[in-house]
Amino acid sequence: MQITITGRKVHVPDDVRAAVERKIGALDRFVSGLERAEVVFRGEKNPRIAERDQVEVTLLGHGHHVRASVSGIDQHQAVDLAVGKLGKQLRKLKTRVVRRHRPNAHRDEGRHLLSRLDNDLVDGAAVAEAEAGPDDPEWVPRIVRRKSFDLELMEPSEAVTRMQLLDHEFFLFVNSDSSKPSVVYLRSDGDAGLIEIGT
User: Fold this and answer.
1) What is the pTM of this model?
2) What is d(CA 84, CA 120) in angstroms, rounded to the nearest whole number?
3) How far is CA 155 from the centre of its chain?
4) Residue among 76, 75, 57 nearest 66 (CA)
5) How confident is the model at residue 125 (pLDDT cuts 50, 70, 90)?
6) Measured between alpha carbons, how far is 184 from 172 in angstroms, rounded to an integer?
7) Mean pLDDT within 120-130
8) Are strands 36-43 and 2-8 parallel, antiparallel or unpaired?
9) Strands 125-126 and 153-154, how do they pair?
């Protein structure tokens, strides 16, 4: 895997670069075909924030795009947190790939973690796969609710205000500046981002 390491207005020492190459490089054991990793370090200048070292890692390859953005008290801790988060995401990705290519894999008892299905009994009660929770690395969220609504025409700033009023992390609308369907979303740094749907 090709690994690119960049420091945005921060210095990345050689020992941190070596740790990144070793730890990020080992992530391809979860999913084969990862071709590239882009690692970007940033620093928070606010002295009141304890976790001032930020790292954003993006993994790409075979049509996969996995990203983690974390903060730590130093660059080494930030790298470790990012590796842990990416490991969980890659395990979920691997589960989805297995389900897609082997839809009946759960019938082969013991061949995969997903083989524990309705026939397993605990105290005489059937255990459903749905009992797995978000803390389970094999858990994949299901779509349990659908909504349909008309998008309103408005400026991005108005969409951000509407998002805040609804206490949501994103808001769909039609951008009056471009006439395109768009999304504003809440970033981890507290600011908002804007995504426009291309033509």
Assistant:
1) 0.55
2) 30
3) 28
4) 57
5) very low
6) 7
7) 38
8) parallel
9) unpaired
The reported pLDDT for the residue numbered 139 is 63
- Give exposure, 71-83, as e/b (b: 16+ Cβ within 10 Å): bbeebbebbebbb
3-state SS string for the chain: CEEEEEEECCCCCHHHHHHHHHHHHHHHHCCCCCCEEEEEEEECCCCCCCCCEEEEEEEEECCEEEEEEEEECCHHHHHHHHHHHHHHHHHHHHHHHHHHHCCCHHHCCCCCHHHCCCCCEECCEECCHHHCCCCCCCCCCCCCCCCCCCCCEECHHHHHHHHHHHCCCEEEEEECCCCCEEEEEECCCCCEEEEECCC
Task: For 71-114, write each residue's pLDDT tens digit.
Answer: 999 999 999 999 998 888 888 777 766 565 555 544 443 444 33
Which amino acid belongs to residue 71? S
Fold of 2-101: Double Stranded RNA Binding Domain (3.30.160)
- Domain limits of the chain? 2-101, 153-196
153-196: in CATH 3.40.50.300: no
